Inverse folding.
């Protein structure tokens, strides 16, 4: 799988003042790069099931805990990577290719609920909560602009978009909470239909896709199985790893097998049986500022290796 011919990858760090410009770029790029890899950062989980509940792995109960956490918590960060079918990232005719990191102001450590171990980990990984509070994006503005720019609900006929996550319950949960500005639906059935309403049926949870192909474990273990190189864990690199692993699976399985996987995912969603979407996960991110040559604002970007991979998506206090 190619990733923009091994060009250096630049992470575009987005705050409130940059939001319109960056969403416009995504709207333009997504026509050529319709695979969207998504990862969210949030302050851990405060409601946790018992070991027996985890062992039983009941989708309805899993959804109950996920809903309780998403309703009570605030999103901190959203990572997005766009790709074409060959794994190329947008480069806008520059020497670099790009992924996005959206930083939100909603979370207030002095007011909101959080898991302390998760917050400490996120601080160590480089998230600046004070900067987010001062310059971050209001999730209400973000949701409105997603509608305005036609990036959800196929407002501009962008029905070819494929959304991809790994252990994606919380990713989509926080996205739906932002888009509706309401608590999540009361039951799993309603959540599935709301998910399809906003994101369509081209939704992959790689955790489930890998299971269909006999690949088990977290991202790190699967990356080793697929012989992909590893790297330190960051929120943006989680999206890059999802991209590389998705492409590796598609290439190895062949076009027909990939279509079978997609059909299976779509049937699963339509029948309200896509259990892995309700699995719990959290993640962390870390970025180091570097300069990058492009006509767009340089100080908002950070660089990462094109082969950058992260470990499995979890905070230290939570095991998948």
């Amino acid at each position: 799988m190619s990733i923009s011919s091994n060009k250096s990858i630049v992470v575009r760090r987005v705050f409130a003042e940059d939001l319109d410009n960056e969403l416009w770029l995504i709207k333009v790029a997504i026509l050529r790069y319709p695979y969207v890899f998504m990862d969210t950062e949030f302050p851990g989980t405060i409601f946790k099931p018992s070991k027996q509940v985890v062992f039983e792995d009941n989708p309805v109960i899993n959804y109950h805990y996920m809903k309780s956490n998403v309703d009570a918590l605030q999103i901190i960060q959203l990572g997005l990577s766009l790709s074409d079918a060959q794994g190329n990232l947008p480069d806008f005719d520059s020497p670099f290719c790009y992924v996005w990191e959206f930083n939100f102001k909603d979370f207030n450590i002095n007011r909101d609920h959080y898991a302390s171990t998760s917050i400490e980990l996120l601080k160590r990984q480089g998230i600046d909560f004070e900067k987010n509070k001062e310059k971050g994006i209001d999730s209400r503005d973000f949701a409105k602009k997603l509608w305005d720019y036609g990036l959800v609900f196929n407002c501009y006929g962008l029905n070819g978009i494929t959304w991809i996550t790994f252990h994606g319950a919380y990713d989509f949960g926080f996205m739906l909470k932002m888009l509706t500005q309401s608590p999540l639906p009361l039951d799993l059935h309603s959540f599935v239909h709301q998910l399809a309403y906003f994101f369509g049926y081209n939704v992959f949870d790689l955790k489930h896709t890998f299971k269909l192909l006999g690949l088990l474990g977290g991202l790190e273990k699967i990356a080793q199985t697929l012989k992909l190189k590893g790297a330190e864990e960051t929120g943006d690199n989680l999206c890059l790893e999802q991209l590389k692993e998705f492409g590796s699976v598609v290439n190895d399985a062949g076009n027909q097998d990939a279509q079978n996987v997609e059909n299976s995912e779509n049937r699963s969603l339509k029948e309200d049986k896509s259990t892995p979407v309700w699995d719990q996960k959290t993640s962390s991110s870390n970025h180091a500022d570097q300069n990058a040559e492009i006509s767009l604002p340089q100080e908002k970007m950070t660089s990462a290796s094109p082969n950058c991979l992260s470990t499995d998506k979890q905070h230290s206090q939570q095991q998948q």
